[in-house]
Amino acid sequence: MNVPPSTASPIRGRARQRPGDRIFSGMSTGAGVLILVVLAGVATFLLVETWPALVAPTDEIPGDSGLAVYIWPLLFGTLLSALFALLLAAPLAVAVALFITHYAPRRLAQGLGYLVDLLAAVPSIIYGLWGANVLAPATVPTTDWLSENLGFIPLFAGPPSATGRTMLVAVLVLTVMILPIITAVIREAFLQTPRLHEEASLALGATRWEMIKMAVLPFGRSSIIGASMLGLGRALGETMAVAIVLSVSGGITFNLISTGNPSTIAANIALEFPESTGIDVNALIASGLVLFAVTLLVNMAARAVINRRREFSGAN
């Protein structure tokens, strides 16, 4: 049967868009551009306000040692607390997400999922109060034992703090704060694992753990990395919890249990900004610019890792 040429020929040209489609497309594009404009505005503001501190004499910068010397201990404390918190939170988040998605009974898993989401909604100042008044005193016997038995390790060199308001407690508080964020993202990624992959692994004789290792974890690898970077960004910018918990004395040290604790950039800005004037304000904003750059680099690195895994999907 011959088909008329008018019906056999392919439709040429682009389909005509409806007004609603054009409006939605324009709003989406505008929202994306607005984000870039806001980001550029924040960066411009930080650069403009940082410039007076960059050209100011060394003796006018807080500490009388120059801007780099002023910011470096704060940056060190920020990275130290955030990285240790991530090292503790990421494996625990993967374990919790696996338990909720593949081991716990359905009703228990649903309740645990709600609990994890609720933990993410707790204000940071509540975590700070809990860390300073409950967790810090409770860690004093532990830090004494660590100093006596593991004092040869730089992290536990001591002498231990009598109040417990140490970098170790700040790390533990940050771990609890970023744990629900990482867990929620990883949990949703594990739930998206193709059921066909899981059933095929089990049909070939794999145990539940072998199935998880061969099907679930490879599928969720990029989400694990992305969620970890998201948690790291939260830990880098945390302010009130660290400011309440940490007993700051300045300096650079890897000792987590002593009274000498470096502050973080965000906590230092929160504590010092209300009473600062003149060039001191510019120095604080300069430290904020450094934190902004570090956070931006972390998010760019996470995006690069996720993009490398974009081609992997359940259909492959």
UniProtKB/TrEMBL annotation:
Under SUPFAM superfamilies, the record lists: MetI-like
Location(s), subcellular: Cell membrane
Q: Where are the transmembrane segments?
A: 23-47, 67-100, 112-130, 167-186, 239-257, 281-302
- Biological process annotations from GO: phosphate ion transport
> GO CC terms for this protein?
plasma membrane
Q: Name one GO molecular function term.
A: phosphate transmembrane transporter activity
Give yes or no: UniProt keyword Transport: yes
All copies of domain ABC transmembrane type-1, residue ranges: 75-302
Q: According to its UniProt record, where is this protein mainly located? A: membrane
A UniProt-annotated Pfam family: BPD_transp_1
Q: Is Nucleus set as a keyword in this record? A: no
Q: What is the topology of this protein in the membrane according to its UniProt annotation?
A: Multi-pass membrane protein
InterPro entries found in the cross-reference section: MetI-like, MetI-like_sf, Phosphate_PstC, Phosphate_Transport_Permease
> Which parts of the sequence are annotated with region: Disordered?
1-20
Enumerate the UniProt keywords alphabetically: Cell membrane, Membrane, Phosphate transport, Transmembrane, Transmembrane helix, Transport
User: What family is it from?
Assistant: Belongs to the binding-protein-dependent transport system permease family. CysTW subfamily.
Question: Its biological function?
Answer: Part of the binding-protein-dependent transport system for phosphate; probably responsible for the translocation of the substrate across the membrane.
| Protein name listed in UniProt | Phosphate transport system permease protein
Q: Which organism is it from?
A: Amycolatopsis cihanbeyliensis
